[in-house]
Design brief:
The chain folds into six domains: 4-142, no CATH class; 143-188, no CATH class; 192-372, 3-Layer(aba) Sandwich (Rossmann fold); 374-426; 428-564, Arc Repressor Mutant, subunit A (Orthogonal Bundle); 572-663, no CATH class. A seven-stranded mixed sheet has the order 2-1-7-3-6-5-4. The chain has a three-stranded antiparallel sheet with strand order 8-10-9. It has 27 helices and ten strands. The radius of gyration is 30 Å and the shape is globular. With 676 residues, the protein is of the alpha/beta class.
Length: 676
């Protein structure tokens, strides 16, 4: 309808006959709002066929209402636009049928009719795709429809997910859908049959056993949150136990629940290893939220209405230069949680161990802890039967009771193990061998990648490719390192770990351009792209940052560099009982009753050193050089099955004897002076 007068008359007539109008109080904001609403209808020539007019109206309504109503309107907009998805499907069917008819070479008259119909359908298809969801990526509609039907969301190719993540959500519905699409990627899959969660309750500082396990066991964080009303909880687990995956699954499930129920809640997943200064947590979170979701209302608005679930990963990885600074940062988060306590707000931290999180809990706000337990032996067996049925019995017979069995009680290690056994038909002896086999396998799978394909490129040379093709290696730890790729990744991991030294070897996030500068070569971008393709590096497109795909991979590559260039000073600590500070008595005096005894001071390089020892050209020399700097760690390295030292014989001096020259025959080493 192109006649403005006729269009205006139609709109005014429709409004005049609307039965709800006599009941509206026109004395307040309703009058100017209605004027603007009518103006929106009046200026569009086509209201029924395309969606922009009605969406513009709804956007106008959104500008006049609060956050809760805005979320309901977002849902309505998406429901309206998904009808276009149905039209798209119908048009594609018509086009496919017409293309098939043309391929059958019909008669000229029929061919002309089909071509005309096909051209019209293709034109309409192009028009619909253009206006389908405005600035909303088309993939959102399919995910949304599946969720509202309570069906499984569709699988989206990684490139589609990348497009969704680059897209800045215009509303909470889009935010939820982008999170759901990301966490549905196969690498974040979670099988709850192999999840063991134990609830630890804080019984108070005066209780001899302060942290006591609840009798119930869980396999879903939502079950824990439903049982425990506390506003904050901590998820505890060793590296590789699946803490981050569990948080992401919680965000996925929460987003799906909110979409199905048209709920008002939002979630914000963020890693605390980027909490680099002592900014107030509220300010830091608001800034991060605004950067990630500039079109949404400020995070404070949602917090004020009790609508937020904060998912705060890697508490123990907060950068800090001293224990005092770490305690100060924990105190800031504790105070912030107390500030936002209101029905509806929740915070779930993830942390390596209770040593780092216990201080969050205080009498004024108890913070229960949820511990991720290793899989029971029977679960390990079921896992093997589920993911490697053909070889399950043989794998179980070799693995059960073996020295590295405990390593494989976490899903990440066990899945890596099964992948390697399928490829190499043998069990790795430990972490270093396991990750070496993983990297070899990833390169073999991606050998035709454009960056790796030319026989003599800079990243992977001809000799490297020959080794991969023949799968013949001088040792279980050798990799194709004649080219630039793997040595560069090792140096990058080592430098990133140096950057995060104060965070106990935590995974470090690094700006993309800074990573290129760290590599300092013409092929820097190619190396980073190849690292992402191999699933060694992970790229956060929204933040333009890189990290190693898992903390364990960063430790492994840093260990390869450390094995080549040993530096025992990295793990130097006073370890003798008469030299350790603070003393045991001083430590006990500072602990509340029931608090756990903290471990000896760490440098952040302990796990990396344990992984490096078997990969060193001379493991015995590597371990010997550690002894004066950190005898307990040297002993752990020597006990590693991958190092392969013979079983120790009883010492004629008895167990009280201190290590002397005969402990390692190659030479003298110093030990701490004996106490007076």
């Amino acid at each position: 309808m192109d006649d403005p007068a006729a269009r205006q008359a139609l709109v005014k007539g429709a409004l005049h006959n609307e039965p709800v109008l006599p009941h509206i109080d026109w004395t307040g904001a309703a009058e100017p709002f209605t004027r603007r609403l009518v103006g929106q209808l009046d200026k569009y020539s086509d209201i029924a066929a395309d969606r922009p007019a009605i969406v513009a109206l709804l956007d106008e309504v959104k500008a006049q209402v609060g956050v809760d109503r805005q979320q309901q309107i977002d849902t309505l907009i998406l429901e309206l636009t998904t009808d276009v998805e149905r039209q798209l499907a119908e048009l594609r069917q018509v086009i496919q049928a017409d293309q098939a008819a043309l391929a059958a070479e019909p008669a000229a008259e029929q061919r002309s009719e089909v071509e005309t119909r096909l051209a019209g359908a293709q034109a309409k298809l192009a028009e619909l795709v253009k206006v389908q969801t405005g600035d909303l990526p088309a993939a959102f509609a399919g995910v949304f429809n599946a969720i509202r039907r309570e069906a499984d969301p569709p699988f989206l190719p990684p490139e589609t997910v990348e497009a969704l993540l680059r897209h800045s959500p215009a509303n909470v519905t889009q935010q939820r859908l982008s999170q759901i699409a990301e966490w549905l990627l196969p690498r974040y899959a979670l099988d709850k049959r192999f999840v063991n969660l134990t609830l630890l309750l804080d019984k108070g500082e005066a209780t001899p056993q302060r942290w006591q396990a609840d009798d119930l066991r869980f396999d879903d964080l939502r079950e824990v949150l439903a049982k425990v009303p506390d506003p904050a909880l901590v998820l505890l687990g060793a590296p590789g136990s699946g803490k981050s995956t569990l948080l992401r699954r919680l965000q996925l499930d929460h987003g799906i629940d909110q979409l199905r129920e048209a709920g008002p809640g939002v979630t914000f997943f963020i890693q605390l290893n980027s909490y680099r200064d002592t900014t107030e947590p509220r300010d830091w979170l608001n800034a991060a939220w605004a950067k990630r979701y500039p079109a949404l209302a400020p995070l404070d608005d949602y917090l004020g209405r009790g609508r937020v679930m904060l998912l705060l990963d890697a508490l123990n990885e907060m950068p800090h230069s001293s224990d005092a600074e770490y305690d100060h940062k924990v105190g800031l988060w504790r105070a912030f949680i107390q500030e936002i306590v209101t029905p509806g707000n929740r915070a779930v931290f993830a942390c390596r161990s209770l040593d780092y999180s216990a201080s969050l809990s205080r009498p004024e706000l108890r913070v229960p802890q949820i511990e991720v337990q290793p899989m029971a032996p029977e679960q390990v067996r079921q896992f093997i039967e589920r993911y490697s049925p053909a070889r399950a019995e043989a794998i179980w017979q070799e693995l059960a009771g073996s020295p590295p069995f405990d390593l494989y009680r976490t899903p990440i290690y066990l899945k890596l193990l099964l992948d390697q056994v399928e490829q190499d038909q043998r069990l790795p002896r430990g972490k270093a061998e396991l990750f070496t086999q993983f990297v070899r396998q990833q390169i073999r799978r991606n050998i035709d990648h454009p960056l790796l394909g030319p026989p003599d490129n800079d990243l992977l040379d001809r000799r490297d490719r020959t080794k991969l093709a023949r799968d013949k290696w001088p040792s279980p730890f050798d990799l194709p390192e004649r080219g630039l790729l793997l040595p560069s990744l090792s140096r990058l991991a080592f430098r990133m770990q140096q950057t995060g030294l104060e965070t106990e070897g935590a995974t470090v996030r690094i700006d993309y351009d800074e990573a290129c500068q760290q590599l300092d070569c013409d092929q820097a971008e190619a190396i980073l792209t190849a690292g992402v393709a191999l699933a060694v590096l992970d790229e956060d497109i929204a933040r333009d940052e890189l990290t190693f795909f898992h903390q364990l991979l960063q430790e492994y590559f840093a260990a390869r560099q450390l094995a080549r260039t040993p530096d025992p000073n990295l793990v130097h600590r006073d370890w003798a009982v008469w030299t350790v500070t603070p003393t045991l008595a001083e430590t006990l005096a500072d602990l509340a009753d029931g608090d756990p005894l903290p471990p000896l001071p760490q440098t952040g390089w302990e796990e990396t050193t344990l992984t490096a020892a078997p990969m060193a050209p001379d493991p015995i020399a590597f371990i010997r050089d550690l002894i004066p700097h950190n005898l307990p760690l040297a002993a752990r390295c020597a006990a590693s099955p991958e190092v392969g030292l013979p079983s120790p014989q009883p010492s004629p001096r008895g167990i009280q004897g201190r290590p002397g020259p005969q402990a390692f025959e190659a030479g003298e080493h110093s030990t701490p002076s004996q106490p007076p």
